[in-house]
Amino acid sequence: MSQDPVELTRGLMSRTAELRRGFLDVLGESTGAPVPTVAQRAMNSPFVATVYERLWRPTAFYAASGLTHRAEQRRAASALHLPDAHRLLDVACGPGNFTAPLAAVLPDAGLAVGFDISESMLTRAVADNSGPQTCYVRGDARMLPFDDETFDAVCCFGALYLMPEPFRVAGEMVRVLRPGGRIAILTSYAPEAAAVRHLMTVAARSIGLTVFGRHAFIDLFSSAGLVDIEQQTQRAVQFVVAAKPAATAQEA
């Protein structure tokens, strides 16, 4: 008999969590987060959580990249080598519109953990995208409540540009990634042309978004010791994937 995904997830966590509305919550009533931006308030809205999966996310992403939602999922599963993974962490998972499809690609005993700070999004994730290989956790991605080297694959799609400390979050993602594991992010991208980059940056800042340049995450992953770093840019988005070097026999 397969293990309950909630209890399996508890076993991976470095902090205690209360089960609320079907998801594990390490924050309780107080988040300790800064005053949210316009974009962050939208992501915490029950209305946005309801329409996000079927309307907002597919439409906005297609306009920004030219890729369909299904094509994006296929690329993510391939880049993360999910058929060979056992534990996946989906940071800023929203309503689970990536977590559940990616969980379906994992081996039979695999587990996909969706992680988000929004109660509204996680409530929707539990209602719409739960399964025998999924569990959802509420917390602050700047301090992921998992031990070092816990997951075979870690991803964050379409959310880092919303966060107040995106590079700290990316560093946490690297920390919880196992040696030999793979990390993938999809986030904003500003072209090299100075005038275009300036206009995009000003517009994004007005609603609390960050637009990243070509080298931001390549440099971060490289400095963290990751290898096999690849980047694809399409219109206003970039997809970056990398691997943590496998442990040597002496290190193991």
Give a structural overview.
By secondary structure, the chain is an alpha/beta fold. The chain has a single domain (5-27, 41-244), classed as 3-Layer(aba) Sandwich (Rossmann fold), CATH 3.40.50.150. It is built from nine helices and nine strands. The protein has helices spanning 5-10, 38-43, 46-65, 69-79, 99-103, 119-128, 166-175, 194-205, 216-223; strands at 18-20, 23-25, 87-91, 111-116, 134-138, 151-157, 177-188, 227-234, 237-243. Strands 1-2-5-4-3-6-7-9-8 form a nine-stranded mixed beta sheet, with helices on both faces. The longest helix is centred in the N-terminal third of the chain and has 20 residues, at 46-65. The chain is globular and about 45 Å long.
Number of DSSP helices? 9
* CATH level-two architecture: 3-Layer(aba) Sandwich
- Give the integer mean of the pLDDT values: 84
Number of domains: 1
Uncertain runs with pLDDT below 50, 5 residues or more? 31-35
Helix/strand structural class: alpha/beta
Q: Helical amount among residues, as a percent range?
A: 25-40%
Strand content: 15-25%
The N- and C-terminal alpha carbons lie at a distance of 30 Å
Element pattern in H and E: HEEHHHEHEHEEHEHHEE
Please report the total strand number as a whole number: 9
The profile of the biggest β sheet is: 9 strands, mixed
Shape from CA axes?
globular
CATH fold call: Rossmann fold
CATH class: Alpha Beta
Rounded Rg: 17 Å
What is the CATH H-level superfamily? Vaccinia Virus protein VP39
* Widest sheet, order of strands: 1-2-5-4-3-6-7-9-8
